[in-house]
Design goal:
alpha/beta; formyl-coa transferase, domain 3; 6-stranded parallel beta sheet; 18 helices
């Protein structure tokens, strides 16, 4: 299934947010052409570990070595080189843009406009273009020019304030959540804009903001009520109000979800703690919330005597949601993810052999109409110059060689 196989995307993207958006569109069948600076390309290409003829290494050992990070976020994306600072490079970009459906970029705000390649410039040659910019703080507002990697966005958004133990420091989410979720918002915004174009013929500009993304995630919960009521916003592995949370068993940790009277009653009965049900101190939800710490300790004392296998069987039998906290190695070895295509072997475009220990994240939704396309792995810098420029700009080998000599390719 290739629902976007008639869509061409020009991608001027670096590091993570823009490349992840580009790869997501490629997974739906779009032709995504990543435009990189001659000689250097996406800076993530220079960050190890690397894979090449000598296997995996922390530093680049040969010219053939490619960054593992680059490979993880470049599946199915074509690589061409083009110096956008050169007048001829600018002209060639606009020629490519004439036949494109989408432009995506995640450079510093205003960079593409200063190059003469912003939305206002591209729309002159292609009125139907859908042009999407991703930035830490967006293209407007008082923070737009601040440095904005995921660490700073997590700090400024406030998500670190609600993450971590109640008596501990603010804690960063362990994945680059701003860099990863914002492209997903952007991807379905692009699809919405393309649908709008089908109906009206109008293209448009999309301004995606990482800090705004995290704000929308946080306030899906009633945080304003927690603040008004003086509740701690930082609850670690536990619920801010109830007994839901992490409990340590004899051979590992489990997390359980308790909500409502029935689950409370089932828990007490399963743990042989009927006296808690008879105690007026714990009669109502409000009562249990007032005494949440002592109740957590009672549950910990009772449940902590079990190993994970028996503890999970006990509470699952009482219809209480429970799961063991698994390690990353356990997850990596779980065939569930291999069978569903969630985690896949990593490949380079120039090799049929999988990369040593390499894992690429697949797409977490399956379609009854058939699988999404199998994509080639990440490409070497400029790997598609001849194919793309020959097909789209009718440039032959001699013309490409001249452009390379002039520093344009």
């Amino acid at each position: 299934m290739k629902p976007l196989d008639d869509i061409r995307v020009l991608s001027v993207t670096v590091f993570l947010a823009g490349p992840f958006l580009s790869m997501t569109l490629a997974r739906f069948g779009a032709e995504v052409i990543k435009i990189e600076m001659p000689g250097s390309g996406d800076p993530i290409r220079e960050i190890g570990p690397f894979t090449g003829p000598n296997g995996r290494s922390l530093g680049r050992e040969t010219e053939e070595d490619l960054s593992i990070r680059f490979l993880k976020r470049s599946e199915g994306v074509k690589s061409i080189t083009l110096n956008l600072k050169d007048p001829e490079g600018k002209r060639m970009f606009l020629e490519l843009a004439k036949g494109a459906d989408v432009v995506v970029e995640n450079l510093s705000p205003g960079s593409m406009t200063r190059l003469g390649l912003g939305y206002a410039d591209v729309v002159k040659v292609n009125p139907g273009i859908v042009y999407c910019s991703i930035a830490g703080y967006g293209q407007t507002g008082p923070y737009k020019d601040l440095p904005a990697h995921d660490h700073q966005i997590q700090a400024m958004s406030g998500i670190m304030d609600m993450n971590g133990a109640a008596d501990g420091p603010p804690t960063r989410v362990g994945v680059f959540v701003g860099d990863l979720v914002t492209p997903l918002y952007a991807a379905y915004s692009i699809l919405g804009a393309l649908r709008h174009k089908e109906k009206t013929g109008e293209g448009q500009y999309l301004d995606a903001s990482m800090i705004d993304t995290l704000a929308t995630l946080m306030f899906m919960e009633p945080m304003e009520d927690a603040l008004h009521d003086g509740q701690p916003v930082r609850a670690g592995n536990d619920s801010r109000q109830g007994l839901t949370g992490l409990y340590r068993l004899s051979d590992g940790d489990v997390i359980i979800t308790l909500g409502g009277l029935v689950r409370w009653q089932n828990l007490c009965k399963a743990l042989g703690a009927d006296e808690l049900l008879a105690n007026p101190r714990y009669a109502t939800v409000d009562d249990r919330e007032r005494h949440v710490e002592e109740l957590r300790q009672v549950i910990q004392d009772r449940l902590g005597k079990f190993n994970c296998k028996d503890g999970i069987a006990l509470l699952a039998g009482a219809n209480i949601p429970i799961a063991r906290v698994r390690t990353l190695p356990e997850v990596m070895q779980d065939e569930h993810f291999r069978d569903r295509g969630t985690l896949k072997p990593m490949y380079r475009q120039d090799s049929d052999e999988p990369v040593e220990r390499g894992i690429v994240a697949g797409f977490p939704v399956t379609f009854s109409s058939g699988p999404l396309p199998q994509l080639e792995g990440g490409a070497k810098l400029g790997h598609h110059n001849e194919e793309v420029y020959g097909r789209l700009l009718d440039l032959d080998a001699a013309a490409l060689a001249e452009l390379k000599e002039r520093g344009i390719l």
